[in-house]
Give the backbone structure.
Amino acid sequence: MNASRLQIALAAAAALAAGVVGTWLMFKKYEREPEAAPPVVSLEKMGHLVSVKLNYADVIEFSQPRAVDIPWSQREVRLGGTKVLFVARGDCTVATDLRQARYADVDPQRRTLTVVLPQPAPLQARIIHAPREQGGSFFYAITEHGLQPFIPSAGSRTRAMNTVLAAAQRKVGQACSEGAVIASARNNAESVLGATLAATGWTPAFRWR
């Protein structure tokens, strides 16, 4: 009887010791492995975060001069040129490349962190080539002056039109890169990412590089 009681006591002591050791190991594990920040990969998978879309409209005037060279000399005769009036309509998007995002200043206890992001940049800038009645760009007028009407040249007219189209494309990109537009893109991106991280229990700050 005494032997049975001794065995029960030893078994109880062993179980208690195992419980104490298990609890100690559990706490040591938490000490060694503090709660990590949300994985950056979750942001990377979002790719480009579009935070601004800008509609663009402008009237562009351009004159394409035309001249012919005088044989055996370095002089030329000006024949006039082609004048183009183009109504440009387009749009562009500004986005932040989240594939370059990283975390800094992570504090697991306070659940705060800093998200380091690249500056937003134009992602797509385009001239709309839809029909005029559907909001597309169009040539309002194409006129020829000087001797050009008497010596017409399809090539001169085509060069003038292509030059205007290229200028309009550049202007859309420039409008999308203005400081106020980039600042708006940053603010909108912070609102979206802040809400996303707050939903996981983290309070983020943002740093733009």
